[in-house]
Amino acid sequence: MEDFATLPDLASRALGGGVVHANDEFFAAADHLVLPAAPVFTPRSFDHKGQVYDGWETRRRREPGFDVAIVRLGAPGVIRGVDIDTAFFTGNYPPHAAIDALTVEGYPAPSDLVEAEWVPLVPKSPLQGDSRNLFPVDDQRRFTHVRLTIIPDGGVARLRVHGTAVPDPRLLPEVFDVAALAHGARITECSNMFYGHPENMLMPGLAQHMGDGWETSRRRDDANDWVTVALAAPAEISLVDLDTTHFKGNSPGSASVRGTADGTEWFDILPRTPLRPDTPHRFPVRPGRAATHVRLDIFPDGGMARLRLHGRPVAGFLDEQFRRHT
């Protein structure tokens, strides 16, 4: 698998992504493209239009042309690669596809997007059926929308747009969650993610169930589990939110949060503190210095639904990052 596939899916519905235009959805709605869950399939499940597919499927073309779906990214940013997943589409997948991207401000109408000048990211390329089709992207610009073109027609289960979020600083308050994936934070290291990926902790909204968080296997030694997060911007943290919602018999007994600005010297943000099961914990803190990365230690193991770290970013950092990619 390409390295980019480990990066966040900027188009995911979980981040607010959505399909804003599709020229044809006869057999299955294009909204399926951005669903965060893996596609599923039940053989011989028919409705009034035929076999039910968990994906986008257009009718068979009887004239030259192609079909398109336009996706608004939930987190605008730099795209490192795309995954055109044709899972369960075997005799009805598109033989070729292309990806283009666009940067626009505000909230354009679908008609404006259709007529816009798009930037090619992936040229017309062959696809395999019932497969993940991975295409790296080498473009450092920030984009807000992508367009999937399938040639000439057929079905695609999911479109994953992997990359790094680059927020518009004009749209952020002075103090915000600098650990949010939608703002550009990312997981850099983790001791264990047996039951749930730590990236879940950085997602927006409340966890929906126990599987919508980070959970480790049971430790049988004297060590503890941990995860490190690269913050969206260097910031002095003022509020730590450790949410164990849904974790009842498997929440950590305690946790601590440390920060670093140089990757070598770590300082306390929140000293080791007892936690309760199935509880949002909020702790005001004053570490007195800014961090670029934080490390969450849980003792000894268990699950965490969400991690929020509210702070004021260092002046000018987000503006410079935004200018560099626009």
Automatic annotation (TrEMBL):
Keywords, A to Z, come to:
Hydrolase, Purine metabolism
Main EC class the enzyme belongs to: hydrolase
Q: Which residues form the Allantoicase domain?
A: 16-165, 184-313
Functional pathway = Nitrogen metabolism; (S)-allantoin degradation; (S)-ureidoglycolate from allantoate (aminidohydrolase route): step 1/1
Mind telling me which Pfam families this protein's record contains?
Allantoicase (PF03561)
Reaction(s) catalysed by this chain, per the record, are:
allantoate + H2O = (S)-ureidoglycolate + urea
Which Gene Ontology terms cover its molecular function? allantoicase activity
The family note in this entry says: Belongs to the allantoicase family.
Under HAMAP family, the record lists: Allantoicase (MF_00813)
Extract the PANTHER family matched here.
Answer: ALLANTOICASE, INACTIVE ALLANTOICASE-RELATED
What protein name is recorded for this chain?
Probable allantoicase
